[in-house]
């Protein structure tokens, strides 16, 4: 293999590091704020009841999985725009953004109708306990019925980030978080003259905040990225870009859909253990998210830079940048996981006084320290390989390992052997780390360098 000096001169590397920092910084803040948006509901509802936390956690697991339908378009938008921008194909960028918004709007309306009219049937299929059903039904119907809002926002945010304008989605998310916190405080507990609505109040606040975000993002798109969509670019309709979005987005989203569906199945298993186990999983998931934010930011920021480099026919530069991003993500993620584990008793003590939930949660946080090595690699590798055009390998690997290890061994360790939620987390650890070692080999093999999408375009 060529030496680093021949692959990438120091000046170019320093320039890309600065560019990566400008991308990863806002993405880090946006991801932190997005996670906070979900955690705010959990934290505030924890003061209401553990059952409300369990109900909302279960519904959010399902909603998050269904929202991945929108990732089909958003991921395709990010990959195509990154490579088209690198190749300086401006008209292709405009067509891709326009088609992605239309497609996600259609997807969003269908999903919204499904959640609104079929909430009871979906929750019964999930095996939701009777004592959780009223809160789960209320939250799903309100938040799920505005799914189209999130669909449009995801398409716009993906296009802005691909154009090195990650600052704008970050600022929108900041404003939305502030509005959601105020709305939650007012509507859950009945402050500032508002009625005390509990879970219903959290749902209303979340839905309104997301609607405001969509409007603001659309305004920013028109002012900062695509000022207008010329008719001549869409007459006839650019079905080739629609095909490209689906061709890239479907397998790309398939990896996330497979993972999220596996989590729904695992949540279904946890539902048979106890309400405490279900609440502990919700608490742990929200706490642990703050430990791998850096990996997400570096993975997404690095993927955008890698997409630009691949589009500009500089695959070896992308390889060097990717190795740097992966190492940094691993180190920081493990450090953050240790910090989270050390503070676990204090955090759980604030969230709940149920000693069984606290006991399970603290053990899980320490197991997660080892798990984060694999997760950091996987977050980087999936984003980077997709951005380079290698979209099928992550999907196949995820389906085989996640279902073969995470789901199967969750049943074996958690239910059959009786170790409960703690045994399931050991299964998650095995899943993440097995995939990580395979992904490292894939990246080092450089097989992804022949998968560039732009090579199919006449440039």
Explained architecture:
It contains 17 helices and no strands. The chain is globular, with a radius of gyration of 22 Å. The protein is mostly helical and 459 residues long. The model is unreliable at 1-8 (pLDDT under 50). α3 (50-86) runs parallel beside α11 (275-289) and α7 runs parallel beside α9 (199-224). It has helices at residues 4-7, 10-46, 50-86, 90-117, 119-125, 133-145, 147-162, 167-189, 199-224, 239-270, 275-289, 293-311, 315-342, 344-351, 355-388, 392-416, 420-445.
**How much is the radius of gyration in Å?**
22 Å
Number of β-strand runs? 0
Written as H for each helix and E for each strand, in order along the chain, the element string is HHHHHHHHHHHHHHHHH
| Tally of individual helices | 17
Rough outline: globular
Largest sheet: none
Q: Would you tell me the structural class of the helices and strands?
A: mainly alpha
Strand content: under 5%
Helix content: over 70%
Task: Report low-confidence residues grouped into runs of 5 or more.
Answer: 1-8
Mean pLDDT value:
82
> Whole-Å distance between the termini?
29 Å
Keywords:
17 helices; 0% strand; 459 residues; 82% helix; mainly alpha; disordered N terminus
SSE blueprint and pairings:
Blueprint: H1 4-7, H2 10-46, H3 50-86, H4 90-117, H5 119-125, H6 133-145, H7 147-162, H8 167-189, H9 199-224, H10 239-270, H11 275-289, H12 293-311, H13 315-342, H14 344-351, H15 355-388, H16 392-416, H17 420-445
């Amino acid at each position: 293999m060529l030496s680093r000096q021949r692959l990438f001169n120091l000046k170019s590397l320093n320039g890309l590091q600065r560019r990566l920092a400008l991308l990863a910084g806002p993405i880090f803040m946006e991801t932190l704020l997005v996670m906070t948006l979900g955690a705010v509901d959990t934290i505030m509802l924890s003061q209401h009841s553990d059952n409300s936390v369990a109900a909302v956690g279960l519904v959010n697991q399902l909603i998050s999985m269904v929202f991945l339908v929108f990732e089909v378009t958003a991921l395709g938008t990010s990959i195509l725009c990154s490579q088209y921008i690198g190749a300086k194909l401006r008209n292709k960028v405009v067509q891709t953004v326009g088609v992605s918004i239309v497609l996600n709007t259609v997807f969003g309306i269908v999903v919204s109708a499904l959640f609104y009219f079929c909430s009871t049937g979906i929750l019964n299929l999930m095996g939701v306990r009777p004592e959780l059903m009223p809160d789960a039904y209320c939250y799903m119907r309100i938040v799920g019925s505005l799914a189209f809002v999130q669909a449009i926002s995801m398409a716009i945010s993906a296009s802005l980030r691909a154009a090195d304008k990650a600052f704008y989605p970050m600022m929108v998310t900041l404003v939305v978080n502030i509005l959601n916190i105020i709305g939650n405080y007012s509507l859950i507990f009945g402050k500032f003259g508002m009625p005390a609505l509990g879970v219903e109040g959290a749902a209303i606040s979340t839905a309104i905040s997301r609607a405001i975000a969509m409007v603001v993002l659309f305004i920013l798109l028109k002012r900062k990225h695509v000022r207008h969509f010329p008719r001549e670019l869409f007459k006839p309709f650019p079905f080739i870009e629609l095909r490209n979005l689906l061709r890239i987005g479907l397998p790309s989203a398939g990896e996330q859909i497979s993972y999220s569906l596996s989590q729904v199945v695992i949540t279904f298993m946890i539902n048979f253990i106890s309400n405490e186990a279900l609440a502990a999983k919700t608490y742990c998931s929200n706490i642990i998210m703050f430990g791998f934010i850096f990996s997400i930011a570096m993975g997404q920021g690095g993927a955008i830079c890698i997409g630009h480099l691949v589009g500009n026919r500089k695959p070896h530069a992308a390889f060097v940048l990717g190795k740097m991003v992966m190492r940094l993500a691993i180190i920081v993620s493990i450090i953050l996981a240790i910090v989270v584990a050390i503070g676990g008793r204090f955090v759980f003590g604030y969230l709940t006084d149920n000693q069984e939930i606290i006991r399970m949660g603290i053990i899980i946080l320490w197991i997660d320290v080892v798990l984060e090595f694999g997760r950091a690699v996987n977050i980087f590798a999936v984003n980077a390989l997709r951005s380079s055009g290698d979209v099928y390998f992550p999907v196949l690997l995820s389906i085989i390992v996640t279902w073969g290890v995470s789901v199967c061994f969750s049943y074996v360790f958690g239910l059959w052997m009786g170790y409960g939620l703690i045994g399931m987390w050991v299964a998650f650890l095995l899943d993440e780390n097995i995939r990580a070692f395979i992904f490292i080999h894939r990246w080092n093999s450089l097989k992804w360098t022949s998968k560039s999408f732009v090579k199919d375009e006449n440039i």
